[in-house]
Amino acid sequence: MALLTVNDVSLGYDGRAIAEHLSFTVEKGDYLCIVGENGSGKTTLMKTLLNLKKPLAGEIITGDDLKPGEIGYLPQQTEVQRDFPASVMEVVLSGCLSRMGNRVFYSREEKQLAVENMKRMGILDRADQCYRELSGGQQQRVLLARALCATQKVLLLDEPVAGLDPKVTADMYRLIQSLNKEGITIIMVSHDVAAALQYAKHILHVGNRVFFGTREEYSSSKLGRLFLEQEGGEA
Amino acid sequence: MDKLAEYLQYPFVRYALIVGVLIALCSSLLGVPLVLKRFSFIGDGLSHVAFGAMCIATVLKLSNNMLLIMPVTIIGAVLILRTGTNTKIKGDAIIAMISVAALAFGYLIMNFSNTPNLAGDVCTTLFGSTSILTLSRADVWLCIIMSVLVLVIFVLFYHRIFAVTFDENFARATGMDTEKYNLLIAIITAVIIVLAMNLVGSLLISALIIFPAISAMRLFHNYFKVTVFSAIFAVICAFSGIIISILAGTPVGSTIVGVNVLAFAVCWSIGKLRGTAA
């Protein structure tokens, strides 16, 4: 059974739909990229997958023992976080909260998990540094390490390279790809179609017209070519 | 010093010190998440709600006005904090609306009561004045119990409060019931504010919430250290503020706030100096 099955889902605010009749599946180990114009409902779709919002219609079925809360999430940075006084360790550890149950403090295993994930993201030497003093790329690594503390199965990334310079962007994509090779399912929202086509296995295009298929199918489809041209023209 | 030792023999001075320090401690702990969540003004807003409730209690001649003030303020806190980010009226606007409305209606209602010294009563409620020096033993116990309760809750939920403050969406996505914790923060805030009205009056409560937190943020870059330092900061300021006001005969509330402002200035300068040195 697929990890996530999205069945004829409609999304929107206050009963007004912005994306309708979405159906797609995410298999274990998949790398799905969600692309589309601004305002097409990419972020809303992500919030719905995360259970932060209810779909207007349709259903989302989780399979393969994926429990709610076992999804790792890399959100876009908020205003609050930019000047938040917290050390890297504190931020990463907060990803372990869902494992805590009713315990009050973190256990040794959870601290160990945080350390391992910081090592994995190459930020262990910055554990005591202040989160707000890091560069954008390093902040993303911290948030990735936090997401990895919450899940070993699936990561949802919301515009993971927004605001990063080209070199850091390339590093970030490589990092995400290596996680995918380790067996973690990746679902990424992005407006960077070129990168999506380079790394993703499947593409979901939301907007006036909807497309779901492999990246090869997408780049040979009419919609995909049109969108690629547009984006290419803008860049 | 002799004068101080002499004053300390009076129970009302000791009561004032106990209550003052405890309230300052609780509000400073809560201040860190509130300031970070951009809810600095919640203290101000809620204290005006409490003021409005107190006016109603006065007019109704309730014997124990806490029974009315506490629930009304808690409801106000819930209304303000639950709006969050997804509503049409944003946090700052809703605080301002509730706060001025409560202030205006409170003063209006106060005029219907036949108190001989209306201006004096209102002034006392707004600026705290001497009520901290006339605490009864029961008041002190109430305050101690409430403060211990707040401290215990704060320690038990420390990591969860951090998570909800730092990134509410992430916390929710990983299965945390963030609504519950926001509600908890709202209720504790309301309790502290009602208690703090005795100390500094409803106009100056924000100072107890904001100054320790932002002073600590000037100096430390780690959430745990910020929390600990703001607690120490608040205790020292409240203690010295009360002592100074007794020795110099100044109003208690404004003296405590004055000490807070000065101490903030010191922290700010140290932070600046360190920043340029680094």
Itemize the secondary structure elements and their pairings.
The complex is a heterodimer of chains A (235) and B (278).
Chain A: E1 4-13, E2 16-26, E3 31-35, H1 42-49, E4 57-62, E5 71-74, H2 79-82, H3 88-93, H4 108-120, H5 136-150, E6 154-158, H6 166-181, E7 185-189, H7 193-199, E8 202-205, E9 211-214, H8 215-220, H9 222-234
Parallel strand pairs in A: 3-7, 3-8, 5-6, 6-7
Antiparallel strand pairs in A: 1-2, 1-4, 8-9
Helix pairs in contact in A: 4-5
Chain B: H1 2-8, H2 11-36, H3 42-59, H4 66-82, H5 91-110, H6 118-127, H7 137-156, H8 158-166, H9 168-173, H10 178-200, H11 205-219, H12 223-248, H13 252-277
Helix pairs in contact in B: 2-7, 2-10, 2-11, 2-12, 3-4, 3-5, 3-10, 3-11, 4-10, 7-10, 11-12, 11-13, 12-13
Description:
The complex is a heterodimer of chains A (235) and B (278). Chain A is an alpha/beta fold and 235 residues long. Chain A folds into 2 domains: 146 residues, Rossmann fold (3-Layer(aba) Sandwich), CATH 3.40.50; 75 residues, no CATH class. Chain A has 9 helices and 9 strands. In chain A, the strands form 2 sheets. Chain A has a 6-stranded mixed sheet, sandwiched between helices. A 3-stranded antiparallel sheet of chain A has the order 2-1-4, with helices on one face. In chain A, helix 4 packs across helix 5. The longest helix of chain A has 16 residues. Chain A is globular, with a radius of gyration of 18 Å. The model of chain A has no long low-confidence stretch (mean pLDDT 84). Helix content of chain B is 80%, strand content 0%. Chain B is built from 13 helices and no strands. The mean pLDDT of chain B is 83. Chain B is globular, with a radius of gyration of 19 Å. Chain B has a single domain, classed as ABC transporter involved in vitamin B12 uptake, BtuC (Orthogonal Bundle), CATH 1.10.3470. With 278 residues, chain B is mainly alpha-helical. The chains are: A alpha/beta (235), B mainly alpha (278).
